[in-house]
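Sequence, please.
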């Protein structure tokens, strides 16, 4: 909640990006990036970190504490889950997606729904994000993932994202 206040007080920015690392395996690439980001954060002591691909503000002190404490919050920094209302929907439909996995060559996820709690869908999306990060891009068209209820099977389809940024997502169809 205080992120906007902190960012308004910032006068400078430093861009931290990985250069010429696309050929590395994504886990190695991300680990190198996060190690460097943490080191730069310790030295420069910024007021805030903006995760471009995760589209969120990160607390620098929390990043350092978690990284050095062994928690290594890679996905908490580089990814995010977003919620949108579909304004012309008859059933008060919502769409929720993940954003950030695409930055290291993995698909993000999206789910359009009206009959579930947003927090339940958010938790489910985070589980999917961690699963794909751990095992790689292994979900194919027609595969299923477990839904909200134990034993439920939700079908997956690869497509171009409904929401920006344009990227490949796994569209999860609740049943």
């Amino acid at each position: 909640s205080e992120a906007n206040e902190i960012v308004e007080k910032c006068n400078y920015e430093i861009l931290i990006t990985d250069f010429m690392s696309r050929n590395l395996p994504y886990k190695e690439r991300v680990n190198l990036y996060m190690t460097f980001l943490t080191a730069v954060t310790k030295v420069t002591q910024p007021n805030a970190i903006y995760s471009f691909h995760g589209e969120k503000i990160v607390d620098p002190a929390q990043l350092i504490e978690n990284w050095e404490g062994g928690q290594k919050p890679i996905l908490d920094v580089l990814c995010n889950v977003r919620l949108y209302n579909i304004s012309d929907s008859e059933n008060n439909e919502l769409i929720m997606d993940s954003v950030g996995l695409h930055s290291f060559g993995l698909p993000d996820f999206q789910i359009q729904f009206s009959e579930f709690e947003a927090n339940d869908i958010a938790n489910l999306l985070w589980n999917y994000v961690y699963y794909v990060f751990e095992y790689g891009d292994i979900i194919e068209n027609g595969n299923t993932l477990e839904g909200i209820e134990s034993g439920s099977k939700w079908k997956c389809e690869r497509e171009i994202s409904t929401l920006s940024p344009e990227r490949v997502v796994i569209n999860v169809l609740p049943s």
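The radius of gyration is 17 Å.
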